[in-house]
Amino acid sequence: MTKLKKRQDYISWDEYFMGVALLSAKRSKDPSTQVGACIVNNQNKIVGAGYNGLPMGCDDDVFPWEKNGDFLETKYPYVCHAELNAILNNIGMDLKGCKIYTALFPCNECSKAIIQSGISEVIYLSDKYEGNDVFKASKIMLDKAGVQYRKVKTGLNDLILSFDESKV
């Protein structure tokens, strides 16, 4: 009798948690940029998740989603970034030593919150704005505070979820 062996094509922890961050991003109402974040403790348990969106109580049908124009007529003064939302949405525990997975490298404001919360590592998918001063400042602060950061390593281009119950 042949002994059944475990699957070999399962995803890594990094792929799993980045997948949760990307799935969280699907909750964003932002028509141009959807970002998600997932915070994980040292036991590989999810302790927070978030996506970019308006604060609770702010109607996302009333506030602007524009990227350009007068500052108060754009999304920028109103939207909470995914990393900040994940920190604020944590399960009520100390985040010291946790890791945060995020679709985009965090901006300087989110990096302040990451540092202040005690998160020790940032794992990101894209650093497409790395030449922007906001992200240069972010790296300077993370470096000075001793917060590690790295681009996620994966051989995956995509990971498809299915709601077809016959495939469960």
Please provide a written account of the structure.
The protein has helices at 13-25, 82-88, 108-117, 133-145; strands spanning 36-40, 46-51, 99-104, 121-126, 148-151. With 168 residues, the protein is of the alpha/beta class. Strands 2-1-3-4-5 form a five-stranded mixed beta sheet, with helices on both faces. Strand 1 and strand 2 (46-51) form a beta hairpin. Helix 3 packs parallel to helix 4. The longest helix has 13 residues, at 13-25.
Name its key features.
168 residues; alpha/beta; five-stranded mixed β-sheet; 4 helices
Tell me briefly what this model is.
The protein has 168 residues and is an alpha/beta fold. The chain has four helices and five strands, in the order αββαβαβαβ. Helix content is 26%, strand content 16%.
Chart the SSEs and their pairings:
Blueprint lengths: L12 H13 L10 E5 L5 E6 L30 H7 L10 E6 L3 H10 L3 E6 L6 H13 L2 E4 L17
Parallel strand pairs: 3-4, 4-5
Antiparallel strand pairs: 1-2, 1-3
Structural class given helices, strands, pairing? alpha/beta
Give me the number of helical elements.
Answer: 4
**Biggest β-sheet: count, sense, barrel?**
5 strands, mixed
Poorly predicted regions are none
| Beta-strand content | 15-25%
Order of helices and strands: HEEHEHEHE
Helix content: 25-40%
What overall geometry do the principal axes of the alpha carbons give?
A: globular
- Report how far apart the termini are: 27 Å
